[in-house]
Amino acid sequence: MEKRVRVLIDCNDAKGLVYKISKVFYDRDLNIENNREFVDKEQGKFFMRTVVSGNFEVKELENELTKIIPIDANLRVVEPKRKKIVILVTKESHALGDILIRHEAGELDADIEAVIANHDTLEHLVRRFDIPFFKVSAEGMTREEHENQVMMLIDEQKFDYIVLAKYMRILTFKFVEAYPQKIINIHHSFLPAFIGANPYKQAHKRGVKIIGATAHYVTDDLDEGPIIAQDVIPVNHRLEWKDMQKAGRDVEKIVLSRALNYVLNDRVFVHGNKTIVF
Amino acid sequence: MEKRVRVLIDCNDAKGLVYKISKVFYDRDLNIENNREFVDKEQGKFFMRTVVSGNFEVKELENELTKIIPIDANLRVVEPKRKKIVILVTKESHALGDILIRHEAGELDADIEAVIANHDTLEHLVRRFDIPFFKVSAEGMTREEHENQVMMLIDEQKFDYIVLAKYMRILTFKFVEAYPQKIINIHHSFLPAFIGANPYKQAHKRGVKIIGATAHYVTDDLDEGPIIAQDVIPVNHRLEWKDMQKAGRDVEKIVLSRALNYVLNDRVFVHGNKTIVF
Amino acid sequence: MEKRVRVLIDCNDAKGLVYKISKVFYDRDLNIENNREFVDKEQGKFFMRTVVSGNFEVKELENELTKIIPIDANLRVVEPKRKKIVILVTKESHALGDILIRHEAGELDADIEAVIANHDTLEHLVRRFDIPFFKVSAEGMTREEHENQVMMLIDEQKFDYIVLAKYMRILTFKFVEAYPQKIINIHHSFLPAFIGANPYKQAHKRGVKIIGATAHYVTDDLDEGPIIAQDVIPVNHRLEWKDMQKAGRDVEKIVLSRALNYVLNDRVFVHGNKTIVF
Amino acid sequence: MEKRVRVLIDCNDAKGLVYKISKVFYDRDLNIENNREFVDKEQGKFFMRTVVSGNFEVKELENELTKIIPIDANLRVVEPKRKKIVILVTKESHALGDILIRHEAGELDADIEAVIANHDTLEHLVRRFDIPFFKVSAEGMTREEHENQVMMLIDEQKFDYIVLAKYMRILTFKFVEAYPQKIINIHHSFLPAFIGANPYKQAHKRGVKIIGATAHYVTDDLDEGPIIAQDVIPVNHRLEWKDMQKAGRDVEKIVLSRALNYVLNDRVFVHGNKTIVF
């Protein structure tokens, strides 16, 4: 049956990979609709993302490819279908709102399964869009107790990715380990500048002339995960830290949505602490 | 003998091109050091730039590739060697100066064969770098007479490209036709805004909040040739047109040098009125 | 009574203006909380925006200032209160959505009185936010008939500004003349490049390496009104025009919201075809 | 005698400062050609830079102003004349070259008194411009011994500012203390990210998507001095650290020259660890 898939390969680099892979496509009479590859020479790693279309069975294509790529290769043959996301928020609406509007417009290749918050500030907004909203207050609980409740809620959903759209709580090792390469965060600074709390206050204090935002996968090292997207805007001495916070919101939401778009379209490879974004 | 070449192919798109081309490389045991390809679906055109290394004869590689690519394909197998350029200027030194400094530092993959000017303002600067300087005054001449002298001078040089580094004269059809895809110009606006004379005055009058610069191949349509690179900087109401001109110089020189770098590294394909820059 | 106002003055430049104006503030023991001024020397025009606070009557302050500024001066003493806007849209939700989310978050210094559209595509979204939505279909009508209906609807609202958040219809002279300096539009190109219809198609065809968006006051010259804000993003040969359109949406919405923020905070002076933005 | 000066005032904020200062200008019939002021409310500090012209004696104007500004105020009345700079470099030519070209074009409001280097790599380039070049090799010396020689050389020059145009040595406390607010450095990262050695290697390792450069006053805290200007460029996974270094050079030179331009035009106030740039 006529179909279109994304073939995603990362493996140790070896001579003839492009030839061997494109031979599989050619022998099966597939169209290459889009093709990007990259070799990290320092690390000796090969990355390839190819969109192919034609008459074929996914399983068979996988088998054919598996035969000719290195034994340690990661191979995914992905049919482009809408993914599912769960969004975690606290009180600020800009990043969440940007995703909601894109979702409503059909511009987000994902269904929003649920929004989970530690405050109820955003409940009204979320309900406007007929999306399930869950509040898990952290009051009177240990961090672990709170997280357990959040994780239970998450695990009840179907999801491909967890999006931290300004979720202002630090995640424990346990949480992060439970969802490897599944958690995407927006940090409100140009990482690695201003790691940790109150980056706008830090930026204001340091007197920087540019502020930024960073979307990254969450790993157990706080604010140290692989960066997916970054952007910046100029500021000057006239901005107090709250003005920077306000100005920064536009960058935060755009960068998060951009990163989310890359991830939902399977355009991101993670290698060590870095990303390859095709 | 061990060598490294850039293989540049553009042709009508066809199934199996990547496979067939990579097979040639694989059969000859060549390393693919860098590979970029692009299919313009609207136009049905295929573009590929691959850096390969290994033991081979350039002529033989060309022959092999010619056999398997479409009959109308443009194929170039280019050994990465320093190219030669001739620079045309008028009075402003920033774009020329940027090239001279890069040249001196060994960061420009080109030798500057000559600088030709219609004024002697920049003679002193050029002579500081021991580079031949020729003044061809336009005074008392028709445009054609002046251009004929300039063209004679150009034709006496060995050159791959002619760089207009703020050459403030309009070229005739005859001049442009003589050097197809050989002339690179920096226009001091974000084209296609402010075509023609005095773009900064035009920009000031229009009250834009951003100004820019555009490096492009020169074709017989004034300021309408294929764009290679563009960049911009913010401006505001405080800048008079002369301030914009001053501020714009930084963008002009960076954009021209960036475009020149692309061209000298054979990273630019021209297709119709557009470029593909790998 | 303790209050805070924005004093907005534009007039022909004259010696001693700053002195005389600041004397009025000083004599009345007012605090200058923020002060910006600008002299356009070419035009001989003086612009000043000062935020003052203290115990005073607005009327009296106006009277005092009127005495000492030139007779042809424009003086406004504005109390910072939420303004009212009417939004016109067609089918695209990104610019409207951005305003709705800011409005919901209390970050927009305005109440949205109504959204008027020539299609019902966005009705559902607007109703989610409990904001009045009016559809005025243009089908089977002349341009004038349609506009008359829209104008009647607008005139029934209380409003300070009309925001064209991707309203894809050309306005007649009559419409524009009816609301001088009241209509703010987002044009989906870096004006003055790509005036008119389908700027992304134009941009794609021209092969630009940067696309942009422009927020401007609407005057009777199509896409020629005073520019309030502009921004850009890089593009490359990989983007088809529809990809440019998609990528451009982020710039469009941010630029419109930024411009709107300036206008709502009385930070914009219009002079001829230009703006001074403090 | 008709003259034009820059009046620079910073002091604790107080009511009536603008009034009192503008009164001095008005009473003496001076033209205000340009006026910028800023109040840092958090710190309670007032900053003002006014360009005035007319018939007056500088000394008298200073006296008049001194009478009406707070006793702790810093007042400077500066006649706009070319300043003098000494440039320190190591081996890279881009930042130095950019300054040399601007200097040659008459676009730098400064005379270059000398270039001092710890290597002779750039001697040839500097001599091309007929500017004194001094090499002070650090070989076989302690840091202190080397610095003493450099300081002796500096002190033999007339200079207003010392420009570190990619001077790759760490300065001692003694050196920095000797020239307070006189040393301007370009750091090859977007500070405070990647403080210290090899910022491009650090940036590459961290996998950032944007790199930048920072021009700042040098204080005894390494890379922690007041920031004057910053800018950035996008990068991606394709760039190895040496490519980042190469790409970063354009930002470095532009940012340094921009900062230098601000400083030479007396547009920068330093307050604590921050700058106000008018």
TrEMBL record, chains A, B, C, D:
Family: Belongs to the PurU family.
Species lineage: Bacteria, Pseudomonadati, Campylobacterota, Epsilonproteobacteria, Campylobacterales
Ranges that cross the membrane: none
Protein name: Formyltetrahydrofolate deformylase
Catalytic residues of the enzyme: 223
GO biological process terms held by the UniProt record: 'de novo' IMP biosynthetic process; one-carbon metabolic process
Protein purpose: Catalyzes the hydrolysis of 10-formyltetrahydrofolate (formyl-FH4) to formate and tetrahydrofolate (FH4).
Annotated pathway: Purine metabolism; IMP biosynthesis via de novo pathway; formate from 10-formyl-5,6,7,8-tetrahydrofolate: step 1/1
EC class (word): hydrolase
Species, as recorded: uncultured Sulfurovum sp
UniProt cross-references to PROSITE patterns, sorted A to Z: ACT
Gene Ontology molecular function terms on file: formyltetrahydrofolate deformylase activity
